[in-house]
Amino acid sequence: MDIMVLLKDATRDAHQRLERRLGVKDRFSNIASYRDHIAKLLAFHAAAEAAWAQWLNPVLSDFPARCKAHLLARDLTTLGGVPIAGATAVPNLLDSASALGGFYVLEGATLGGRHLLPLVQRSLGLSDAQGVSYLASYGTEVDDMWRRFGTSVMAHCQSASANACAIAGAQATFLAMEDCLCGAQA
Questions:
Q1: Which of 41, 124, 163, 164 is 20 to 30 A off residue 7, Cα-Cα?
Q2: CATH number, position 133
Q3: Cα(67)–Cα(75) distance, rounded to whole angstroms?
């Protein structure tokens, strides 16, 4: 079975729980809550991109173009926010397959970003140059970038053990992202 389908199936519950806990309409209803969200995302992306670069650079030829911490930092600055001090916990992924699984979560958020972009622009009156560069990160190339990412994941996760590592990385990343964005579950 296609690893991208396996990843989607294996993370469905975590993905749905995160979406429920995020409460997008409330979170994106005012600049202060949106700015807080961007600060948390920046902390998570910066930590993940740094921690997983050693595993992702060799298997994603366009990894630097997929990194979004700089976009989040720009959005945060534009919105008058400051980065969160201290380290943010991300999964300790120890191979390329698990890192691809973890990055599946971050790249999937880019797909979701194209649906959130009009909501944020409408409700907060922001433009691409005014605090939503992260949500607009791939512009019209979102589908192409997702397909290329999927091709890389499939090329590097062909064995059952690599599939299991990718799934474990994605599941761990969803949990860590939920903790970062919403706090630990009660």
A1: 41
A2: 1.20.910.10
A3: 14
Domain span including residue 9:
3-182
Distance CA 181, CA 72 (A): 14
DSSP string, 45-73: HHHHHHHHHHHHTTT-TTHHHH--HHHHH
| pTM to 2 decimal places | 0.95
Helices 3-22 and 160-182 cross at an angle (nearest 10°) of 10
Residue that has been written with the tokens 């706090």 in this structure = 183
Dihedral sign for Cα 106, 152, 87, 70, please. negative
- What is the count of structural domains for the chain? 1
Instruction: Reduce the DSSP state of residue 149 to 3 states and report it.
Output: helix
Look-up: residue for tokens 């799934």?
167
Q: What is the pLDDT of residues 105-139, one digit of tens each?
A: 999 999 888 889 999 999 999 987 789 999 999 99
